[in-house]
Design goal:
Low-confidence stretches of chain B: 59-64
GO molecular function, one term (chain B): alpha-1,6-mannosyltransferase activity
Helix content of chain B: 25-40%
Mean pLDDT of chain A: 82
Largest interface: A-B, 46 and 46 residues
Structural class of chain A: alpha/beta
Oligomer: heterodimer
Protein name (chain B): Alpha-1,6-mannosyltransferas-like protein subunit
CATH architecture of chain B: Alpha-Beta Complex
Number of strands of chain A: 12
Order of helices and strands of chain B: HEHEHEEHHEEHHHHEHEEH
InterPro entries (chain B): Glyco_trans_34, Nucleotide-diphossugar_trans
Transmembrane segments (chain B): 39-57
Largest sheet of chain B: 6 strands, mixed
Pfam family, one (chain B): Glyco_transf_34
Mean pLDDT of chain B: 86
CATH superfamily of chain B: Spore Coat Polysaccharide Biosynthesis Protein SpsA, Chain A
Order of helices and strands of chain A: HHHHHHHEHEEEHEEHHEHEEEHHHEHEHH
Chain lengths: 457, 323
């Protein structure tokens, strides 16, 4: 017998529903019968092929696997042949597999729709797993993230004045990491600048006056950016899920106020009383349009706070940065202006009317919440202090270097931020851990109480 | 011959039969073709509309009180501030001198007295700064604001300042570049590559420094900045020897955003000295100059503006008669 023969013996074309088990004895296959009925298998096939109009002989089972399939399959610890015999085309196995096959059948029937939705889910996952979403958020057409630059002042007051200890390094590391992550998430640029005290002119220290030069440098460095967000070292972004666009810049008119009388700790007369000025300058809100805002400053209990503020690239800003530091002003006022450039800005806002129509103020807690200890020990001023339940955006540990523990504050806020921003899985894990702990404690308590009771007896 | 049963189907499929089209992806099976086309078109159309809207309303510039009317009024407003105590007759003559010139060329005038600006203890000459701001408020449609001190006269009214000096081309031609702001040897020099249309303030220089008797400022956001920064109380209280003159020199030398908008023009163009201070080389008044200036004639002592100006008034009248 030729092994090339298309006999079902070696190829095994089973036909479902065919009752004759071709494996066992009894009747034999037409080929095995030889010419019993004078019909060889090959001749029958040839005739059939004639009817169908196809060429007859077409050996298909000449590979090793096909040749030896039967032997292999029967040597396996289970036998399909047996199963088939037992099953007789009825569904096999228990209920569960039945259910599974049913589902499989439904899925197969709906394979196109299922495939499409799987593809959709896959592409969404890919979008967020790969840097694609960052590119999207960064592009000026979609997310617009490349319009924002975060300027982070590092090394504040360091350099000549004092050496940094491990705590200072830790603070800086945490702060930088926090901003890096945030900037990367939303596709912003981060410019970390060295603010160590430098001598600009041979005869003077200009500590913290470099803010101006630094902002100008950043504007040169990122020529396509529009808004520049200044941040001191001792700040921590508590809610990285807020984008600047959705948090502030898409609703600039709602979140900012132009009329300083709304909250005026410095008691600045506003608008300017001077008849010679034009109506726009004398208007309490400038022209009232959000695109005339070039500087967004929060106010704490003592006036402007430049620990976290926004400045926009514009001709106006260019002028402001140019006039901000002036040698005559510096000579006259540097003893009096304790906060240097911050006081200078307050002074200019008060005395140079051209500035007012382009400055907007923002609720302190929108961008610059204080911890207790700054502006009041208790930390309960609803305008100023951080509130966990409101999920404030950023904490500025202003003044922590004067008698407070910067590192401890930074650490606790970092932990708090991590805890508040856990994902559901982390929350679940923590919940289990917490409940276990609780139970343990309760048990211990109960034990103790029992012991006490026993002792009392 | 007939068959009782249809011929048997081959148990082997033909090797090159057409494959089942359903197994390959084809969106036509999801949605019929014409409907698919409609859906795609609708999505594209929606995106296009969104983009157009963003493009139209996304990038608006600074729209303020300014934009609607600027430049439609008198091209030049001549601004002069008088001391309250000055002789009324002389004040009238000086005012008439400017009004005639303004009428001749379609300009406007703005006069006020020093007491109307709250200068407090600082020298009254500071009042020219708020006066300019005031004039800009009252003439929002004008472009140039020419401050001409009460100690100066328009000696040749036939010269229009707009086309002779303030046009961009003329400014570029006359502008003195790379010149120390304060003579003779200030390290800060006027910029070399300024465009005429970018100039916002036109000043002159005499032998001692920048002159504040006659200068022109172009109305705009920059002018507000310039005038407000100049008028800062720190400078007013600083005891600059020449008050606002030295303050101007100070801000011009220390702040690039001001120097970049400043054109220094030859003194003879708008500020020829007839008597008083020491002019620059070409700054002596000669017949035909637009302005004759008598700096310091109002400071009292032996000088009297009225008397010094008398011959010039007469000459102007004579020329008018001749024309």
């Amino acid at each position: 017998m030729s092994s090339r023969s298309p006999s079902p013996r070696s190829g095994g074309w089973s036909s479902p529903g065919l009752n004759a088990p071709y494996d066992t004895g009894g009747r034999s296959s037409p080929y095995a019968n030889g010419g019993a009925h004078n019909v060889s298998w090959a001749s029958a096939q040839a005739r059939s092929a004639e009817v169908k109009g196809h060429t007859a002989f077409n050996p298909r089972n000449n590979g090793f696997f096909r040749k030896h399939f039967r032997r292999i399959s029967t040597s396996l610890p289970f036998s399909y042949a047996e199963k088939e015999k037992l099953g007789r085309g009825r569904p096999q196995g228990n209920r569960f597999t039945e259910y599974l096959t049913h589902i499989g059948r439904i899925l197969w029937r709906m394979r196109l729709r299922v495939g499409l939705s799987l593809l959709l889910i896959l592409s969404i996952v890919l979008f967020y797993v790969t840097p694609l979403h960052r590119a999207f958020r960064r592009s000026s057409l979609w997310g617009g993230g490349n319009k924002f630059v975060i300027i982070l002042a590092a090394n504040q007051g360091g350099g000549v004045m004092e050496w940094k200890g491990p705590r200072e390094w830790a603070i800086e590391r945490d702060s930088v990491k926090n901003k890096k992550k945030y900037a990367q998430k939303w596709g912003y640029d981060l410019d970390i600048v060295d603010m160590s005290t430098k001598k600009r002119y041979a005869h003077e220290w200009r500590e913290s006056w470099e803010k101006v030069d630094t902002i100008r440098n950043a504007m040169r460095k990122y020529p396509h950016a529009e808004w520049f967000w200044w941040l001191d070292t001792n700040t921590f972004i508590m809610e990285p899920s807020y984008s600047l666009q959705s948090h502030i810049f898409k609703k600039l008119n709602q979140v900012t106020y132009r009329d300083i009388n709304e909250y005026n700790p410095l008691n600045i007369t506003h608008p300017v009383i001077a008849e010679y000025l034009d109506p726009e300058t004398r208007s309490p809100i400038g022209d009232g349009k959000p695109n005339s805002i070039n500087l967004i400053v929060p106010q704490d209990c003592g006036g402007f706070n430049l620990g976290s503020f926004f400045i926009r690239r514009s001709a106006w800003t260019d002028r402001l940065l140019d006039i901000w530091w002036d040698p005559v002003g510096y000579e006259q006022k540097h003893m009096e202006w304790e906060h240097k450039e911050q006081d200078a800005l307050e002074y200019m806002y008060t005395n140079q009317p051209w500035i007012r129509p382009h400055v907007a103020f923002i609720q302190q807690r929108k961008v610059n919440s204080f911890p207790p200890g700054a502006c009041g020990e208790k930390g309960d001023d609803p305008r100023i202090h951080y509130q966990e339940k409101d999920r404030d955006f950023l904490v500025n540990m202003a003044g922590c270097e004067w008698g407070r523990d910067c590192w401890a504050e930074m650490y606790s806020y970092r932990q708090l931020s991590n805890r508040l921003n856990r994902n559901p899985w982390e929350k679940f894990k923590d919940w289990i851990g917490d409940s276990m702990k609780k139970r343990k404690q309760e048990k211990e308590k109960a034990k103790k109480q029992e012991k006490e009771k026993e002792g009392n007896h | 011959m007939h068959f009782a049963m249809p011929p048997r189907k081959t148990s082997r499929p033909p090797p090159y039969a057409v494959r089942n089209a359903r197994s390959s992806f084809n969106p036509q099976y999801l949605i019929p073709r014409d409907r698919l086309r409609r859906v795609v078109l609708a999505i594209l159309g929606f995106l296009a509309a969104v983009w157009t809207l963003r493009w139209m309303f996304g990038g608006g510039g600074e729209i303020g009180y300014e934009s609607a009317v600027a430049g439609s009024g008198a091209p030049v407003v001549i601004v002069t501030v008088f001391d309250e105590k000055a002789d009324k007759g002389w004040v009238g003559r000086v005012k008439r001198n400017r009004e005639e010139y303004a009428r001749r060329h379609g300009y406007a005038t703005f006069f006020n007295t020093t007491s109307n600006y709250n200068i407090k203890t600082s020298p009254l000459s500071w009042s020219k700064v708020p006066a300019l701001r005031h004039a800009m408020t009252l003439h929002p449609t004008s472009t140039w604001f020419w401050y001409l001190d009460s100690t100066a006269l328009i000696a040749n009214p036939s010269v229009p300042i707009t086309s002779h000096i303030l046009s961009p081309a003329k400014l570029e031609k006359h502008m003195i570049v790379n010149e120390p702001v304060v003579p003779p040897d200030s390290v800060i020099k006027t910029f070399a590559n300024l465009k005429g249309e970018r100039i916002d303030v036109v000043v002159t220089q005499d032998r001692e420094g920048l002159s504040v008797e006659s200068f022109a400022v172009r109305r705009g956001e920059w002018a507000k900045y310039f005038l407000d920064a100049w008028f800062d109380p720190i400078y007013r209280n600083y005891n600059f020897q020449k008050a606002e003159g030295h303050a101007l020199e100070h801000i011009v030398q220390w702040h690039g955003t001001i120097l970049a908008k400043l054109a220094l023009v030859p003194q003879s163009l708008i500020n020829s000295y007839a008597k008083g201070a020491d002019p620059s080389q070409q700054g002596h008044y000669k017949s035909g100059d637009l302005v004759a200036s008598f700096p310091g004639c109002d400071k009292g002592g032996k000088r009297s503006c009225d008397e010094e100006m008398k011959p010039y008034f007469e000459e102007i009248e004579k020329r008018k008669g001749a024309e």
